[in-house]
Specification:
The complex is a heterodimer of chains A (214) and B (456). Chain A is built from nine helices and five strands; from the N terminus they run ααααβαβαβαβαβα. Chain A has 214 residues and is α/β, with parallel strands linked by helices. In chain A, strand 4, helix 8 and strand 5 form a beta-alpha-beta unit. Chain B has 456 residues and is mostly helical. Chain B has one domain: TIM Barrel (Alpha-Beta Barrel). In chain B, strands 2-1-11 form a three-stranded mixed β-sheet. Chain B has a three-stranded parallel β-sheet with strand order 6-5-15. The relative contact order of chain B is 0.14. Classes of the chains: A alpha/beta (214), B mainly alpha (456). The interface between A and B is medium-sized, with 31 and 39 residues.
Chain lengths: 214, 456
């Protein structure tokens, strides 16, 4: 029974058929499949899509649609999981954004989707984010990692401003600060005072985070 | 001027259909996918410089279909700028096929070139990589005095008085003006005071616009780029650039961006989007010069088989169906200066785009991200290869390209392009002569190219 419904979910999920998936999840719950099991199955599907994206078989919009679909599923599953006795929060949160002055978002969105597909909760502050906004959000959610991105050489100083502000308030030790993006490299990240460098491409950014938050 | 109805067209973005940016992005993805299928576009790894006229025509038609279906989205007003087929036809009819750039004896005419056009292309050097302040003037004099480089896009300012240049700050504005003034000085010192400049090197519109001044900044005889936010999206900041440049009287140029893996989807979609953006730019940005930028986005490069195929088809579609001069060649390499791979990448990208009718723009080694890893030798290579490629047919070009790609393809796919050396390592900083190692490597690669059929 579980295998059959999981197969149905898989087919609908891979077609990004939101109506079908959102109908199948309550049905699976009614049939006695655990919410955590369903979430695990969905995470596997999302991770597979992430893998296909990282080798160029799928594209950014596929990641966006899959991400949206996962969000919809979580709306149904989260209350059920949190009501259960054995709920143990296990997710890690990454606070992410393009630093002030930088409006490029295609690379950021790719990295974000890869992180999300690997099970990290990503709080995306968007583009052109002031240092203060990173600090306020970090204080509010206490993420496991703060990831800053800069795509242009002229927004690197904004990255430094942000790192300086965050470090002045105690971030960078227990909660690491990662620097990345098209204008960054390992030497520059160290020069700016970041705890670590994201990587040369989206996939490296995923590997860096996996290593850092292991 | 690309269209006299420029202001009327952008005003449509104040009353068009309201939508969200995310909805528009997904619409781009779905519609592009549909167009690829409808027009039967398919990547062919063995025909990177295609002779398939039906494919070229269908690419252009697919792009126009996409543009008239979607229009352009203004992210700030949250509304769509609708574009009709009549708008496109009127604009293409009125397109000026020549841009007069620079002044006096140094004036250059950038012509629209046809596919397999024997006329020499204009060569625009410089671009991506930033350089340290202490070598900027030296490197500019080398660009200004190089016989294969007509003019440059100045290298972006990196530091100003020891500080990293910050976007939107007074230091960015000052650094940009200082940068252009220094380029003017280098041109004057080398006897070319009227040479044009391709802009811009600022990130913020305020820095770009503030540097438009006849005494020491950008002149009306220069041209500056205005880009779309990928894909087919704009905002007030970019529209302000376009309006100010047009009112100032300088040429607006555009690069149509088609990124594989983004909202364009696969390579065929990226090609359509690049063409659609360039035609849209003639109306929405009043652009007079185009450029077909089709690139991979996961590991940014323009020399994979599919990126080469895409760039060449987009260039051919634009140059066959419009009269707008196009400038795009070896914008970026994955390898760095003084490596064979870097020179192969420059050659392979330039051969195809020149034969397909482009003028040439490049080169930013190491994906344009490593400061000081740039020399005029790379732009010279682009220029020399482009001149030689004007003697080739598409069939001949394709043969050479297919011999060149395997020479670096393995390293590209493994993402192991060699970083090369910096300007400081490759040039004598007193005599400004390149080191023998680079000269020998350059000649060695040229000998290989001649062996393949590209005559210097």
């Amino acid at each position: 029974m579980k295998d059959a419904i999981f197969e149905e979910i898989k087919v609908a999920f891979n077609d990004y058929d939101a109506d079908e998936v959102l109908e199948l999840i309550p049905k699976a719950l009614e049939e006695g499949v655990g919410a955590l099991e369903i979430m695990d199955h969905l995470s596997g599907l999302l991770e597979k899509i992430g893998e296909q994206f990282s080798i160029g078989e799928l594209f950014l919009p596929d990641m966006v649609m899959a991400g949206d679909l996962m969000d919809g599923c979580m709306q149904i599953l989260k209350p059920v999981i949190m009501d259960s006795d054995d709920y143990v929060p296990s997710g890690k949160t990454i606070l992410f954004g393009m630093v002030r002055g930088d409006v490029h978002d295609i690379g950021k969105n790719m990295v974000k989707m890869l992180w999300m597909s690997s099970g990290y909760e990503v709080i995306d502050l968007g583009t052109d984010v002031p240092a203060e906004a990173f600090l306020e959000k970090a204080n509010e959610v206490k993420p496991n990692l703060i990831a800053l991105s800069s795509a242009m050489s002229t927004t690197v100083p904004s990255m430094k401003d942000t790192i300086d502000l965050l470090k002045s308030r105690g971030y960078g030790e227990e909660i690491k600060i990662m620097a990345g993006g098209g204008s960054a490299n390992a030497d520059l990240a160290a020069e700016l005072g970041a705890s670590c460098y994201g990587g040369d491409d989206a996939y490296e950014a995923l590997l860096s985070v996996k290593q850092l938050l292991a | 001027m690309a269209t006299r109805r420029f202001m009327e067209i952008i005003a449509r973005g104040e009353s068009g259909d309201p939508t969200t940016e995310k909805e528009f992005d997904m619409l781009v993805f779905k519609t592009t996918k549909k167009m690829v299928k409808k027009y039967g576009l398919k990547f062919d790894p063995e025909n990177l410089v295609t002779t398939d006229e039906e494919l070229i025509d269908n690419t252009f038609e697919a792009a126009m279909d996409l543009l008239t279906t979607l229009g352009v989205f203004n992210c700030d007003s949250g509304r769509t700028i609708e574009i009709s087929r009549a708008d496109i036809d009127e604009t293409l009819r009125a397109t000026n096929p020549v841009a007069e750039l620079g002044i006096g004896k140094d004036k250059i005419y950038m012509h629209h070139r046809n596919i397999e056009d024997p006329r020499l292309p204009v060569i625009i050097g410089g671009c991506g990589n930033a350089v340290d302040e202490d070598i900027r003037y030296k490197i500019y004099t080398l660009y200004a005095s190089n016989p294969y480089i007509d003019y440059v896009e100045p290298l972006p300012p990196y530091k100003y008085r020891g500080m990293l240049v910050k976007a939107g700050s007074p230091f960015e504005l000052t650094a940009c003006l200082d940068n252009i003034s220094l380029w003017r000085k280098a041109c004057r010192d080398m006897g070319r005071p009227g040479a044009p400049i391709k802009g811009k090197d600022g990130v913020s519109a305020i820095a770009d616009i503030s540097t438009n001044r006849d005494d020491c900044g950008y002149r009306t005889s220069d041209h500056s780029n205005v880009y779309f936010k990928t894909l087919l999206k704009t905002n007030y900041e970019n529209l302000n650039r376009a309006v100010q440049y047009s009112q100032y009287g300088m040429y607006v140029s555009n690069t149509g961006n088609g990124y594989v893996g983004g909202y364009a989807g696969g390579i065929e979609g990226a090609v359509i989007c690049s063409v659609a953006e360039q035609v849209a730019s003639m109306m929405v940005f009043n652009a007079s010069i185009g450029g077909s930028c089709v690139m991979e986005s996961l590991y940014p490069n323009q020399t994979s088989r599919q990126a080469l195929w895409g760039t060449n088809i987009a260039s051919a579609a634009m140059n066959k169906h419009t009269k707008m001069p196009g400038a795009w060649a070896s914008y970026m390499t994955t390898a760095g200066p003084c490596t064979k791979m870097c020179l192969y990448e420059i050659a392979v990208a330039t051969i195809g785009t020149t034969v397909m009718g482009n003028n040439c723009f490049g080169v930013a080694p190491n994906q344009g991200v490593t400061p000081n890893y740039v020399t005029p030798m790379e732009s010279q290579m682009m220029g020399e290869v482009a001149y030689a490629a004007t003697k080739l047919t598409r069939e001949q070009a394709n043969e050479i390209v297919l011999k060149l790609v395997p020479k670096y393809e393995e390293d590209l796919l493994k993402q192991e392009a060699p970083k090369g050396k910096t300007f400081q390592e490759l040039y004598d900083l007193d005599t400004l002569q390149p080191c023998q190692e680079y000269v020998d490597l350059y000649n060695e690669v040229w000998a290989e190219l001649e062996e393949m059929g590209l005559k210097r």
